[in-house]
Amino acid sequence: TWKSTNLPWPHISIGLLMGIALAEIKSLDGEMLHAPTRLFHIIVSEASHLIWKLCCNWRIGDEADPEKIPSPPEIKSKWLRIINICINNDRILTDSRAYGKRAIKRTLVQSTWQRVLEDNLLIDPLPDNWLSRAGVLRS
């Protein structure tokens, strides 16, 4: 998902996880890059939540049975489902008729997800109306 930005992956620390909303991705000249920053916030917060849920489910639900450790394909499937939900929520939240001034700007959603979708769906360029249509992110 992050590879689509062609930016280096920032160092992750406990402090960054705790203050993810304050993290900024900047250009070489120090200017904040809004779409990559937004994507970084989404990826880090959703990934840390998924890791927490997987650990809790395994530890409590599966009683820490080594035979029940989630497999990489299972984890990837869960991750893609989460990212799909994020994309779909963003898509829905761009509806200015439903959300008025609170609607997310279409350009921000497009710049956040366009490269991610093109890289994962192998459709370049995406149709102009991709924000209006539901879709699925595949590996």
Brief rundown of the structure:
The chain is 54% helix and 0% strand. The protein has five helices and no strands. Helix 2 (34-61) crosses helix 3 (72-93) and helix 2 crosses helix 5 (106-121).
Report the portion of residues in β strands: under 5%
Unreliable stretches: none
Query: Count of DSSP helices?
Result: 5
Mean pLDDT: 90
Biggest sheet record: none
Q: What series of H and E elements makes up the topology?
A: HHHHH
Multimerization status: single chain
Helix content: 40-55%
Radius of gyration from the CA trace? 17 Å
Ends apart, CA distance between termini: 10 Å
Overview of the molecule:
This protein has helices spanning 14-18, 34-61, 72-93, 96-99, 106-121. It is mainly α. The mean pLDDT is 90.
Notable traits:
single chain, 139 residues, mainly alpha, 54% helix, 0% strand
Sequence-ordered SSE layout with sheet pairings:
Elements: H1 14-18, H2 34-61, H3 72-93, H4 96-99, H5 106-121
